[in-house]
Amino acid sequence: MLYYLNLFIIYSILGFILESCVYKAKNINCYSGILYGPFTIIYGFGCMVLNLLNDYFYVYINNVLLKVIVIFVISLIVLSFIEYMGAIILKYLFNVEMWNYSNRKYNYKGYVCLNNSIIWGILGVLYVTILKWLLDPEICRINPITTNIFITIILINIIVTIIIKNKKTYII
How far apart are CA 141 and CA 137, in angstroms? Predict the structure, then answer.
């Protein structure tokens, strides 16, 4: 359990950094995620799911090429679903659209699109085949007290975000 909490924290922060770098490179004035602070929790959830799939499914595929193809396809589908659900939750909780792909080809309700889904598939392959093996030893060494501090910060962050952003939503 501690491992998955650490995984969630680390990849929420790495997702924030990744998106911030992409926004900076594209000269987009935008903030990654809805929370205050350097956490984009959709990445944390995505990596937890990818990790579960790796531990209980991918490890049984012995052919390397087949494994990469399966990881790509499943990551594309699963991470696109997480992105879609994230958009729905943000719309429901905060009445905001953090992203809208309506102007892109092959989008679904503007919440997911084929281009991004392909990127999710590629990122899933990179996570399972490279990043997981590079960072896992360090993630496993994180002190439980540190984990509890970060989880507390994230939970307080979520509560504060819900209160503040909902106040802004309902102020006329």
Answer: 7
